[in-house]
Amino acid sequence: MSTKASTPSFTTDEHGQAILTTVPITLAYFEGRIYYLTNCCGASGKGSIADGIPSIVCRKCYRDVDDVFADSWQVDDEAAWARYYSLVRADCIADAQARQHVARVRRTAEQAAALDAGRHVPAPLSAPAPVLTDAVKSLLIDWFPVRDRLYDLCSKDLLSDREIAEIEEKRRELVDIGDELVAQFVPDAQARFAITGDLLP
Ligand SMILES: [Zn+2]
Question: Quick one: which of 43, 75, 119, 183 could link to 59 by a disulfide (CB 3.0–4.6 Å)?
Fold first, then answer.
């Protein structure tokens, strides 16, 4: 892919609006909508009923502007692009030029929309590395040697009475450490049943 294809063919103004073209009227794209910007303020138009007369005014200075400033559309709106063509064609541009201009502006709008969509794609969820508290670390430090000793004892073929007693002792120690570890993550019955899905007794 050439660098030209990945470089946006529009500028973005201080409000985050993509400026698609400035002729014959400035056309902007923002969050899925395409709309004209006024010559006076570079703002969009809006409906007004000042003095009881409905009109379209500049959103910033409230001057009356052409009805075309009330128009806005989405990138895939064919009828709207046809309206835009009529407007461009009325600006005394030859038909072929007008079609070229509309096609170019539409491609730019599609590019702005694609970039916009890319920005809104949520980052893929990945499991964060667990951050261990000092309490959890200290419990794990106790856990491993007891667990290793239990493995060693259990792997023996012949066990003395003392070793059999030690196995019982190590098992109790592991259950105690395990319970304390679990308590670090699941502090009460409410939290436990929220995880297991069981109803509180
Ligand atoms: Zn204005």
Answer: 43
